[in-house]
Amino acid sequence: MAGVATTSAKDAGGRGALAAAMRVVLAALLFLAIADMLAGVLLRYVVTAITDYFDWPSVSFFWAEELGEFALAWLTLLGAAVAILERTHFALSVLTHRFPPHLQRAIERINYLLIAGFGGLAAFYGWKLVLLNRPLTSPGLEINLAWLYAAALAGGLLMVFYGLALATGFLHARQSLDEAQ
């Protein structure tokens, strides 16, 4: 697919700016998740031992698990959408590389439309879960659980946007290592 995913400077700039903004969000979520897990371990094994030793009141650390769940849900679903644009999902080209370039492009566009369809399903059911869980709050942090399920909605909508943009040629995916050589 040497000629399939060629990118002009304009396309790479648009994809690059969009992907860079999402990478900043993903990096912040990853940092939050790591810091939260480290704080949870510190509270569980160090602070609990100190409070037990001095017979002080215990410190509640159950919020750490909830915050980690929220961060990891958002990180996973937004990261899956960005991976479509960055072409980092697993792909197996057993037969398609032998097809003519125009057929390869058609198959690639169909693939992106299928991805957009999957993203639409994720967004639809994510929206249903947001509405269903809107009255509930998490036990530790008392955050509305709709925020947890909004990750599926946001990730699904991004998958739809990226899938349709790649299928229509509005954006071009990053070239794979095989294509760049």
Strand and helix map with partners:
Layout: H1 9-54, H2 62-86, H3 101-133, H4 146-168, H5 177-180
> How much strand content do the residues show?
under 5%
Instruction: Please state the average pLDDT score.
Output: 87
How many H/I helices? 5
Helical proportion, percent range: over 70%
Low-confidence stretches: 1-11
Structural class: mainly alpha
Number of strands: 0
Shape: elongated
Query: Rg to the nearest angstrom?
Result: 21 Å
Give a structural overview:
- The protein has 181 residues and is mainly alpha-helical.
- It contains 5 helices and no strands.
Provide a brief overview of the structure.
It is built from five helices and no strands. It has 181 residues and is mostly helical.
Task: Based on the model shown, name its key terms.
181 residues; mainly alpha; 5 helices; 72% helix; disordered N terminus
